[in-house]
Amino acid sequence: MEPVPQKQLIIPIVIAVMSLVGCQLETTKPAPPSEPVVPIAIDPRISPLLAKAEQAFSNNRLTTPLDDNAYLRYLQVLSIDPDNETADQGIAAIVETYLAWSIENVYQARYRRARDFLNKARSVDETHPNIPAIEKMVNSYASGRSKTYELSRKSTQQRDSQAVSKLQLIAAEISKHQATATIAIEAPSDSIGRWMYQQLNEATEERVRARFEITSRVRVHLFY
Q1: Among 116, 140, 179, 181, which is disulfide-ready with 223 (CB 3.0 to 4.6 Å)?
Q2: Mean pLDDT over residues 38-50, rounded?
Q3: Total-model pTM
């Protein structure tokens, strides 16, 4: 076979190179300039109000005095910026604080004060999902329709057979009142609390409704 003349090789090579360059130019074509980002102006009144709200909250001035409390300041922020996330979170924290105080007083058999704090939580946000459970807890304790079970901290930390047996006994008692029962679990860590809840669920026919609280004690409260 005769060798192809060198001039005949130049044309296809040049065309191939031009094609490749053309493809590269097409894929690297610069994007049109985007619209400039315009920063959203923040009302200068908001930051001082949030600072006053945080100060009032840290001093437990949640809803009193009437002219200087955390709830009032958060409402003032929302009147300026209805979508202010910090104010919404602050109001939720006020409700949770009142509910925590209500629980503390229940454990100390101070049911009137427990109801007072519960009503204060409701006055701030009556739609808060934890209010019905705490209300049931207060009523159950006050009427004697509740039981509290103490567990060994060491035993539950080790998750040994003693802790499992105790939780199975509690689950049997829960099953007697399954239709109306709710429980509260106290544990020193989230992992231990979840383990306790899992043990109770595995030993009952229906899923247990529970509220969890991290404390130094290990207890299960049954309300029915």
Answers
A1: 140
A2: 80
A3: 0.61
